[in-house]
Amino acid sequence: MSQFIVSARKYRPQRFDDVVGQDHITTTLKNAIRQNKVAHAFLFCGPRGVGKTTTARILAKTINCENITEDYEACGICASCVAFQKKNAPNIIELDAASNNSVEYIRNLNEQVRIPPAQGNYKLFIIDEVHMLSLAAFNAFLKTLEEPPPFAIFILATTEKHKILPTILSRCQIYDFKRNKVQDIIPHLANICDAEELKYDQEALHLIAEKADGALRDALSIFDRMVSFSDGNISYESVIDQLNILDYDYFFTLVDHLIVGDLSSSYLLFNQILEKGFNPEVFLQGLQEHLRQLLMIQLGNTAFLVNGSQDLLNRYTNQANQATRDFLLTLLDLANECDVNYRFAQNKRLHVEISLMKMAYFPHARQQDISGFSSPGETAPPSKKNGTKSLSSQPTARTTPTSGPRAKTVEETKSDYKTSEKNPVKTDQSARRDAPAPTKEEPRPPAASTSHSQPSSPATGDAPSPTAPESTTPSKKSRRRARKLLPTLDAMDEIIEEVEQNDANNQVVPDDDELIEMVQKTWKNFAENNSSPSLVSFLKDAELRWADDKLFITVTSQLAKSSILDQRTLFEQLRDATAPLTPEIVFVIKPSDSAAKKAPKILTTKDKYEALRKANPNLENLIKELNMKVEDI
């Protein structure tokens, strides 16, 4: 069996033009060679597998090439290039800082730098994973890196630039490699397939490029695995099966079910996905990505952010035209909420199924939300009670078909809401609901027919009056009930209505005397019904005072304040007693009279002597006989 060489090594770029997706770097390096302005130290940084070490090798080979081409590439046939390709070039030294990160290693490197090249004009040192060097090694490397011999060039490579000392960074020309784009990886994989005479599907290569997450080396590793699995025929089905990728056909079908509100089909499709062995979390991530693609397509100028083949983009476009923007935004919000709370759910499957239920119910809730709206340019659905229809004077601005009545955009809904505030006219259903029930059903007289296109004026109040506008708006109560069917992204209108309603129902505020009387009564009842003797003592000793809409509570100690603050039930009862006011409670600590007495003075030695002398006059004679002083006592 012959030795197999992986594609990442076999098809490693040998020229600047072969480097994939890093044109901003290769162009700069070629211009530096052309202008003879090659720096003495380079730092190549970026994510894994994007070509840092490969570019460093190409740069080293090109600098030492004896016959540089007209486009400033290495010739590949001179002695220096041939020696480099055979990995025995004496002037190009490749080092690994991950396994040689001590200060002794850098000292040996400094000694090698002083030796001039045996062949060629330059001696190049490629140090990979340079961030692994120790602090002492970095410091030992500073002087050599800043002022090397004229024939020495350093090329450093790292994936973690933030771990390198700023003193090292300031001595290097820094080149930031970017992640490889999917559009750049796919042609490279196709060229390898053509060179190896392999059959492939464009969609399969697209999946491999997406799975690589911006690393060309990872893409080539996955590609080799797919070649072995599919026996030289890389198909879309084989890639999905091997990489355990959830096919986007599932998400197209699921969104179709959600658009029409088919919950049972959505549950069956989700069960089919679980039976194939996919984790619900993978399903959520795929659904969010699919909804994001649809939203990018629908926004128009962001369509270029969608990755995929032309056939896939056409499918995204067709489905995006079948859904309204508020529908996609709501589904994306629900999917994101489900994903955020997924790890906290005890029943993972039920957690996802509840989110699917909300998504499938949204079209039905939206239809009920807009059933009472009828703006110019829109035909409202027929009423189920009396069969009447609203008139339509202009064609609709958006003709996207949906199931049932046309779903309004967010802008249209807000416009209708503003109109309803200025001209609140009740609809037939809301007026009939608010009116008292008749005691006896009376026959309705026939309406007078006219030859005009305007509706006739009926005898009863089932239809709008002639002075009312053509498009009636629902009452605030019916609109709020419809909007509470499902939470949406626009909930500020409901909050404003509720605040206004609460302001309209202002209660009469009692005066200060009545308030303090109710507070004292509540305070006394709580103290009488409490079983803690210490707390009851604190409550009875406290003084209550009402001033400037504040309740001042005077207690005798910090312990009393802390004990009272722990009584949550007490403050709830006080809040109910002072309703509708919510006073600020201020605690004042005032020690009692017994505690406020002045503490006894600490007596000195002299004070004690004077007190004893007054009690016993003979003490002074004793001190004189013993020849003692007061300070010695």
From TrEMBL:
**Residues in the signal sequence:** none
Q: Where is this region: Disordered?
A: 369-482
Q: What is its EC number?
A: 2.7.7.7
UniProt-listed Gene3D superfamilies: 1.10.8.60, 1.20.272.10, P-loop containing nucleotide triphosphate hydrolases
In this chain, composition skew of type Polar residues spans 388-403, 448-459
> Record's Pfam families?
DNA_pol3_delta2 (PF13177), DNA_pol3_gamma3 (PF12169), DNAX_ATPase_lid (PF22608)
Where does this protein have compositionally biased stretches of type Low complexity? 463-475
Q: Which reaction does it catalyse?
A: DNA(n) + a 2'-deoxyribonucleoside 5'-triphosphate = DNA(n+1) + diphosphate
**Where would I find the AAA+ ATPase domain in this sequence?**
38-180
Q: Does the keyword ATP-binding apply?
A: yes
Identify a single GO molecular function assigned to this protein: ATP binding
Name of the protein described by the UniProt record:
DNA polymerase III subunit gamma/tau
